[in-house]
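INFO worker-7 received task bundle
INFO bundle size: 2
INFO processing item 0
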Amino acid sequence: MTRTLVLSALSAVMVALGGYVYLSMSQQVVSDQTRLPLMAVGAQETDESSDAAAADATAQEADTPEVMEMVEGSPDAPITVIEYASLTCPHCARFSQEVYPQLVENYVDTGQVQFVLREVYFDRYGLWAGMVARCGGPLRYFGIVEMMFEEQRDWVQGEPADVAENLRRIGRRAGLSDDQLEQCLSDNAMAQAMVTLSTEQSTADEIQGTPSFVINGELYSNMSYADFSELLDGMLADSQE
């Protein structure tokens, strides 16, 4: 999913989350009490809601939850690959299925590359997916993300309530309980922290679309496994000189 205005999109997400607008999921799919963060890009806010959001945001500054960096591979690896990806991005799904497994087998598992996945949120479904993936903690995270990419065409279909339940099904198959999923998906403080961090990181690394890669500090666009392998092999050779 290439987006030249990724930072504008992220800003719109921040406005929506800052207003504490929620989606009530009261159909048969979930209980009346379940509420998920709603990123209604372009949503109108009243002065009262804006003031309330500002006051609430100030109160939460001192207790902002930590958003864990999701990492695979040895911290001593000579190369660090950071992927910026959206869980609703078709190009990211293709990378996950065609390139990522070979990178893990040939470079991450061999101790030559440390791989970091950073989520970018273009829409509310991508945020919800990230919240479910993180609900399993670092040990389950990458496995859940792989499932989401493999089944992306299916779980993104339908109304918001349908998508939420589709994500819950993936979470259950990964071993998460309904209580765990509800707690994660209703955690607005974590949702806002995730979007804030994503915005900061994407801005710092000048990300314009997904998937994008920062490899040992340099920005690269999407590429095939052959191109990735050639680049990594060259870096490894240089590190041994």
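INFO item 0 finished
INFO processing item 1
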Amino acid sequence: MGRLVMGYWDCPICGNKGIPGNVMNCSSCGRARGDVQFYMKDGAQDSHRGENERGDIEYLNEEQEKEIGRNPDWYCSFCNSLNKDFAAFCSNCGASRESSESNYFDQLRKKQEAERAELEAQPQTAQAQQVRKSSKKPLLILALVVLALILLFNYLNGNTTQKGLKVTELAWVRAIPVEEYREFSESGWTLPDGAEETGRRSEIHHYDQVLDHYENVEVERSRRVIDHYETKYYYKDNGNGSFEEVPYEEPVYKTEYYTETVSQPVYVPVPRYMTKYYYNIFRWVQSREAVASGTDHNAHWPETDLKENEREGSGRTEKYGFTVQDEKNGQASYLLAEEDWLNVNVGDSLEITAKRTGADPYFTDGNGRQVRIVPAR
């Protein structure tokens, strides 16, 4: 049997704490110990201690062990008084212990079951009130979040306007891609339509990994094995104001390494051949770009001056822009559609408005006309 450790209890009437387990009445209010919950001062009853981790355990001496004993106290079935394990008769009414029907643990279990039943029997209306009460805070937080989002939306959709701008320059550029019909020397695993074959030969297309043989190799393995056992202790509530220190053996593991011979496959690369074609083929490729530009409204497409083996490619491009200068001589350039650009002239006074969200800005001319623009890149 393990050594006995002193337990303590708290008075549920006056709140007096840390009363030794061998004291049957509260020293403050006189309340009988009854069905209290015992504990150890250092909380060791809820933990497991090693051999060298018990320096703060409060062990009982031999005289205290004899006084408290190892078995739970018993309750008198007639007057419900609590008595020591070694008492043959109730200290209050004298009834025989043989007529007793419950001990400390039985009484504690009944108390806990009654508390659970009372909790489960609480009216649902009280629970609903608690839910409504607890739900007010999330609703308030939600309302604040929505308000913050509305304010942020209004701010981001607000406008910033720059006034006092003068148009200092117009610019336009138009470009036409020009393609050339050019011959290329290529090779591939198939012969394209229209290609002129110049040769063919068998070449390596890819490698297959083919099993050649098996060979034995040694590999390192690991496993967890028991190295030794350590004595540990847990603390059992005796139900009489003391705890019993119960020893047990706990295995301590170590990692063990060993080698093992295994048979592993060995693969070799085997080349796979296919016919590769060599050929000449003509393709249309972009070779140059015809460009026209200017700083007036006379925009026109450039002359391509196509040669015999050239043609106009797809994807004509055109850009129309203007440059403005602010009152501090700062400059910025913008692009816009041709029909709007034709209405902008050097010397015009403009103001440019943009949203904080970064949406495309627009300018307003002297007649109040708004035109969407995109900053030049």
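INFO item 1 finished
INFO post-check item 1: The chain has a mean pLDDT of 87.
INFO post-check item 1: DSSP finds four helices and 17 strands in the chain.
INFO worker-7 idle
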